[in-house]
Every structure is written in C-alpha cells, then in structure tokens.
Amino acid sequence: MHPTTVKISIAALTLALLAGCSSTGPEQPAAPVENKTPSAPAGNASGAAVAPTNVAGRQMTAEEALLAQLKDPSNPLSKRLVYFDYDSYVIKDSYASLISAHAKFLTANPKFKLLIQGNTDERGSREYNLALGQRRAEAVKRALMVLGVQEAQIEAVSLGEEKPRMTGTDEASYAENRRSELLYSGEY
User: Given a cut of 60, is residue 111 above it in pLDDT?
Assistant: First the structure.
C-alpha cells in the first residue's frame, strides 16, 4: 500500500472515531452569510462561498467577512477553548465537533493561521506546567492535522500557568485554567 494511501486511511479512521465518540450530538451547520454583492468567493467553515457584505457604509472584504464568522456567537467557529482534565493532555470526545469545525475552516481557507496556546492551572512547578501546556497545545494541533490542516497553518505554544482565566484556588478556577485556546491571525 502506498504511504499516502496509508496516511489518508489513518486520517479517515481517526475522523470517524472522533465523530463516533462525540457526545455533543450532530454538528450544527455554520450560520449563513447574506450575499448582497457578487465577488470572488472565499470559503467558510463548511467550505461554501462567502461574499463580502456592506458594513458601516463600506464594502467588507472577503477576509473581513470570514473574520466576522469567527466572532459570530451563533457560529461554531466562535468556540475556541478546549478544556482538559487535571494533569492530562488527552482531548475529550466532547471537543470533536469543535476541532472538526476549525479544521474544515482552515482547510477551506489556507491563508488563515492558527495559534494554539496551551495553559495549566497553578499547581506544579513552572517547568512542569510549561511542558504540560505545550503537550496540550500539541494535542490540539495533531488533531487538526489529522483532519487535513497543513502544519504550516498551526503554531502550538505553551503559556503554562502564566495566563489564568480565573485567579481562585478552588477546583472551578483550576478547571477554567486547564485549557488550550485557539486564536486566528490578527487575534494574537
């Protein structure tokens, strides 16, 4: 069997496994974008064309329309956090649809780049937390690459415990800090 065929087979099997294990239910389609003027198409989360729209008296570029999708709360692409269990970098099944939506967007829009920031709670040494944060970011990066995203589009970095979402010392605060954040070009 040709090595490329093996890679494609492994990626398809992994995608099927992630989709089959998802506990979040069926993936919701991306919110439609109103087409007011003809233009050069650009892909959206589902790969469909998105036309620029008129905003604040000026024409929105195709890239601005795509960035607006990333911030639209009704669009699955606005969800950018992957949470982890204590001392773990295993992605939970409940994040399969979130990762899949971002993978579809990135493969349809190869000019977009993604920064994945791995974070930890404050427990553990600084060195340990930096290493764990990196493993969390790399786990999300690998999942996206299995779904077809080019490695050149993704950078994985660790912030360790340096960027907490919550400053408390209770389990709820710790749980908020054990995460990877997905940031697109222009957001970091």
Answer: yes
